[in-house]
Specification:
2 helices; single chain; 37% helix; mainly alpha; 0% strand
């Protein structure tokens, strides 16, 4: 991550990185495959992140 960002902006970007992760395998197993995908999954190139 580039250095010319304020700390609050970096924190918001890190939250977006955590939100776009895949569903863990143990959750898929625990829910008997009813939960497979993350509905908040976001492509880094095609979707803009409004963090300022």
């Amino acid at each position: 991550m580039a250095a010319r960002k304020s700390s609050p902006r970096k924190i918001r970007l890190l939250k977006k990185i955590r939100q776009t992760s895949a569903v863990p395998a143990w959750i898929i197993l625990r829910t008997n495959r009813t939960v497979r995908t993350n509905p908040k999954r976001r492509a880094w190139r095609s979707t803009d992140v409004e963090v300022g």
